[in-house]
């Protein structure tokens, strides 16, 4: 009963996080019209929709479902690899893995040579859930992309890949040319926190998009 109440509270909160001014096109020359802002907006809405579906169908948060998906894809992953593949901080990833272990979805594997290098793999129950999660993700992606023609879908995927390459180059140059400032002792800037949150949502959205497109391609093959 407690878990059910928590789920209802979560879905109620997330239902309210829908932009209220998107019925009007953004005016040129404004912040809302910037391409990066539009992509962040799309990523945020897509991530919230995905999380609602995962909560309603499987009782999992989006990052929990993503970890199940990643471990199921690779067979077994270390904590470090999970953090790298999903862009999750180590402490957060550890908590997610702990919850998945408690639910009997993943199990830990020790390393005979290094006890600190713990990997996880799906249990038989986790494997069943992994297939269900992927099927749901494919259906959601198909619905999401249904507003585009086949040509527009191909153009979108090609554009996304180009943007990923270009953004990776920009990030690498920024890290080389601009040394990072030491964080202040005060609270984190809301703007920085918001940008990091948007980046994680964008990463999740693009991952769902590419996975869904790849699944559709295998189906046609």
Automatic annotation (TrEMBL):
Q: Which residues form the HTH marR-type domain?
A: 27-165
Pfam families listed in its UniProt record: HTH_27
One GO term under biological process is:
response to stress
Residue ranges spanning the membrane: these are: none
Name the Gene Ontology molecular function terms of this record. DNA-binding transcription factor activity
What the entry lists under PANTHER family is as follows: MARR-FAMILY TRANSCRIPTIONAL REGULATOR, TRANSCRIPTIONAL REGULATOR, MARR FAMILY
The name of this protein is MarR family transcriptional regulator
């Amino acid at each position: 009963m407690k878990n059910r109440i928590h789920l209802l509270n979560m879905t109620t909160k997330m239902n309210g996080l829908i932009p209220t001014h998107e019925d009007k096109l953004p005016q040129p020359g404004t912040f809302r019209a910037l391409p990066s802002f539009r992509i962040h907006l799309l990523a945020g809405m897509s991530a919230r929709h995905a999380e609602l579906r995962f909560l309603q169908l499987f009782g999992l948060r989006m990052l929990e479902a993503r970890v199940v998906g990643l471990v199921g894809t690779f067979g077994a992953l270390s904590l470090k690899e999970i953090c790298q593949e999903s862009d999750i901080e180590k402490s957060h990833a550890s908590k997610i893995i702990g919850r998945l272990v408690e639910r009997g979805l993943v199990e830990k594997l020790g390393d005979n040579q290094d006890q600190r290098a713990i990997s996880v793999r799906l249990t038989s129950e986790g494997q069943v859930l992994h297939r269900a999660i992927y099927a749901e993700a494919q259906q959601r992606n198909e619905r999401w992309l249904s507003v585009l023609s086949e040509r527009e879908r191909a153009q979108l995927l090609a554009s996304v890949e180009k943007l990923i390459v270009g953004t990776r180059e920009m990030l690498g140059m920024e890290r080389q040319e601009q040394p990072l400032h030491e964080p202040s002792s005060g609270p984190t800037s809301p703007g920085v926190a918001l940008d990091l949150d948007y980046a994680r949502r964008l990463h999740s959205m693009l991952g769902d998009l590419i996975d869904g497109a790849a699944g559709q391609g295998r189906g046609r093959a």
